[in-house]
Design goal:
heterodimer, A: mainly alpha, Fumarate Reductase Cytochrome B subunit, 9 helices, globular, B: alpha+beta, Alpha-Beta Plaits, 2 domains, two-stranded antiparallel ribbon, 33% helix
């Protein structure tokens, strides 16, 4: 391995993840404190309600379940590996992941096509939105490519990528697990951290303000000015 | 346990509305002339029967607004339950889109001045205020104003469902087609569906005066309120990605001024005042049967002259001056004492706090055999022949129940004839007195209603309570804090994220 490639690996897998996380946290906090008003999902359903369903629903459900899959493997790699010990269960997991990835890709393409084709929606699409769509497309497409051409990812992710991720968490990056990965996998990983770094500059911040208290709050909301009265 | 709260409430007297849209324009000029709000009409005036704005907003099979009773008899949101919100948050299935309102436009006026010299006169083509492209105008905010000279709009009115074919004929008879105006703002409901539906908790009701507002910094464009409000009075700002609605001009109210639409009303149809009500009964009343709703809603309104209520109100932190204001409230008189003002579509169960005096005109001038039939011996029977059928008004203001409409209209009609006996004299005073008696209205009450509906001054119509925001501020903040500093600190504009 050339030393240049080694330096690149160091840069992308030992340095850049930290840069991305620092940008993510600093800018997100600054934006929430300084520009709270900009935290919005910026829905365009009002402007275009015909194609909206066909993009938004598959994309959101797809990406949520795919992300849950990544997080579960990150937290419970040993359990994933023991689940995959049986070939049938391995194939079942791989097929589920593949189906969700394709679902996400189709949804994302529908979202992008809607953005391009509706003149009203184009008006409310900022340059950062276009960059974000490009990044997401690279991310999802590379994910699908990896799933197709580098199979059994549920196992090798748990065995090889998760230890690297944990080494990042422990602040002592060990890239030996990652350096040997094929290009598509590396692209998927680096692009993921680019998305994380870009996250606080985009509409993605709506993920951070999920409507969490809603299920258990009181039905009606009353705000008192001055003294807080009971009920 | 009684929980006394005060609520700024409104009455619109529909007999006095001339449909001039001055209220809408006043509101537009003050609040909704910004980018993203061009299509919003926090105040609008509809022609009834008609389809309204947004088109057919009363069709809750389409829009799923308001509350319905579940199998346990509890009110639940028709649009999204708490469980369903998770599935529906990415795509709101019943949300109106811009097509249900209209695409705002302006005209290419530049072209009138800058067009190159040619054989034709330059024109100013309509251009979209969303995209800036040329567009064909397909609808506007009051597209069926005065029914646009057609029966088509009236025929699509969702309220016609409760009418028999004969009653529809009565309403739509050729050359006698009748309509009245229905001005609408946010009802600042006691059980607002918009507030209950907001996943972010951005919508709230102000405790002191009951004004319903959207916290612009907490709104995340989940769009639940747009669907949940059965009156379609929460609007989506497509540019900032935030919901906006009528704020009842609270900055004006806080400085003792009437809201812009009230202030500008040419027909002087609008009344504003405080009502004290029992907030502990909201859920119970919202769960009543349709036929009981109007009476139950009215019974929540408390008597501001009752010493016990006054004491309880003060214990709840309502200032003496606000209670005094509630005693002078024209809304209290019209809604509670005289029972001539009724809530719109109470069957949506949001418990609206804007009430309407139903239109009596043009009942009185019924032409029979070439003469104007003014005083029939069987006066109450003729209410049934009125050109706006009671059944139609009952759909709008009675949850399908005609009795409260009949009560209000009988009273208004008796007062007209009573005044006619006094001023014109072609009705005997005995006949007028008998009519008043049958309408359960004393002469004193008739005089008071006459004065408040016809001779009312500004201060009679708008009894604005002192808001005491200054006292509340002093409890929270040091009033000296900004002393010797320039301006009022840093403000950031509503910039799109």
């Amino acid at each position: 391995m050339s030393s240049f490639a080694h330096y690149l690996d160091q840069l992308f897998f030992a340095v850049f993840p930290f840069v991305a996380m620092v940008i993510f946290f600093l800018v997100t906090i600054q934006r929430y404190r300084g520009r709270t008003f900009t935290f919005s999902s910026l829905s365009s359903q009002f402007l275009e309600n015909e194609d909206h369903f066909w993009g938004m629903v598959p994309f959101h459900f797809g990406i949520i379940f795919v992300l849950i899959g990544h997080v579960v493997a990150f937290l419970l790699p040993a359990q994933i590996l023991s689940w995959n010990a049986s070939p049938i269960r391995l194939i079942l997991l791989e097929l589920t992941g593949m189906a969700l990835a394709l679902f996400t890709l189709v949804g994302l393409l529908a979202v992008i096509i809607r953005r391009v084709s509706s003149s009203k929606v184009r008006v409310v699409t900022s340059p950062s939105d276009w960059v974000l769509y490009l990044l997401l497309l690279v991310q999802v497409a590379s994910g699908v490519y990896v799933a197709l051409f580098h199979p059994w990812g549920s196992s090798w992710f748990a065995a090889a990528v998760v230890p690297w991720l944990w080494s990042l968490v422990k602040l002592s990056p060990n890239i030996s697990y990652i350096a040997a990965m094929p290009f598509a996998v590396k692209l998927h990983i680096v692009n993921a951290f680019i998305v994380i770094a870009f996250f606080p500059f985009t509409r993605l911040v709506h993920i951070l303000v999920l409507p969490n208290p809603y299920p258990w709050r009181k039905t009606q909301v009353v705000r008192w000015y001055g003294i807080r009265r009971t009920a | 346990m009684i929980d006394v709260r005060s609520q700024i409430s409104m009455v619109f007297h529909l007999d006095k509305c001339i449909g001039c849209h001055t209220c809408s324009v006043a509101c537009k000029n003050v609040w909704t002339d910004r980018k993203g709000t061009e299509y919003m009409w926090w105040n609008n005036v509809e022609t009834k029967p008609g389809t309204g704005f947004p088109t057919k907003w009363e069709d809750q099979d389409k829009y799923r607004g308001g509350w319905e009773l579940n199998s346990n008899g509890d009110p639940v949101l028709k649009s999204t339950s708490r469980a369903r919100i998770i599935a529906n948050i990415f795509h709101n299935p019943h949300m109106p889109s811009m097509d249900d309102y209209y695409e705002p436009w302006t005209y290419e006026y530049d072209n009138l001045f800058n067009a190159p010299e040619g054989a034709d006169q330059p024109t100013a083509r309509p251009i979209s205020m969303v995209t800036g492209e040329y567009m064909d105008i397909k609808a506007g905010p009051n597209w069926d104003d005065d029914l646009g000279g057609s029966k088509l709009y009236a025929a699509n009115d969702p309220n016609l469902e409760g009418l028999t074919p004969e009653q529809r004929m009565q309403l739509q008879a050729i050359e006698r087609l009748v309509f009245f105006y229905f001005p609408r703002i946010c009802n600042h409901c006691l059980n607002p569906a918009c507030v209950a539906s907001c996943p972010s908790g951005a919508l709230y009701k102000r405790g002191e005066d009951g004004i319903v507002l959207v916290d612009q910094k907490r709104c995340r464009a989940w769009r639940s309120c747009i669907s949940a409000c059965p009156y379609k009075k929460v609007y989506f700002n497509w540019f900032t990605g935030k919901s906006e609605k009528c704020i009842l001009c609270f900055p004006r109210l806080e400085t003792g001024q009437a809201p812009a639409c009230f202030h500008s009303c040419v027909g002087r149809i609008r009344y504003l005042g405080v009502l004290l009500y029992d907030a502990s009964r909201i859920e119970e009343v919202a769960a009543r049967k349709d036929s009981e709703l109007i009476e139950a809603h009215r019974s929540m309104i408390l008597d501001p002259f009752d010493p016990e209520i006054m004491a309880e109100a003060q214990r709840s932190g309502i200032h003496e001056s606000v209670i005094e204001s509630a005693q002078k409230s024209p809304v209290y008189k019209m809604v509670k004492e005289w029972k001539i003002a009724l809530p719109p579509h109470i069957e949506y169960r949001t418990l609206p706090m804007l009430f309407y005096v139903p239109p009596l005109s043009p009942v009185m001038s019924r032409k029979e055999d070439g003469t104007i039939d003014q005083v029939s011996t069987d006066l109450f029977h003729s209410l049934d022949d009125s050109r706006v059928p009671l059944a139609y008004l009952a759909q709008l203001f009675g949850a399908g129940n005609q009795a409260p409409i009949r009560f209000a209209l009988e009273k208004l009609k008796a007062i007209r004839l009573y005044r006619r006996a006094l001023t014109v004299g072609d009705v005997t005073e005995e006949a007028a007195a008998k009519l008043l008696q049958r309408a359960e209205c004393s002469k004193e009450e008739a005089d008071a209603i006459y004065r408040l509906t016809t001779l009312c001054t500004f201060d009679d119509r708008f009894v604005i309570p002192p808001m005491h925001r200054e006292e509340a501020i002093e409890m929270l903040q040091d009033p000296q804090e900004r002393k010797q500093s320039a301006g009022f600190g840093f403000l950031s504009g509503p910039r799109r994220g």
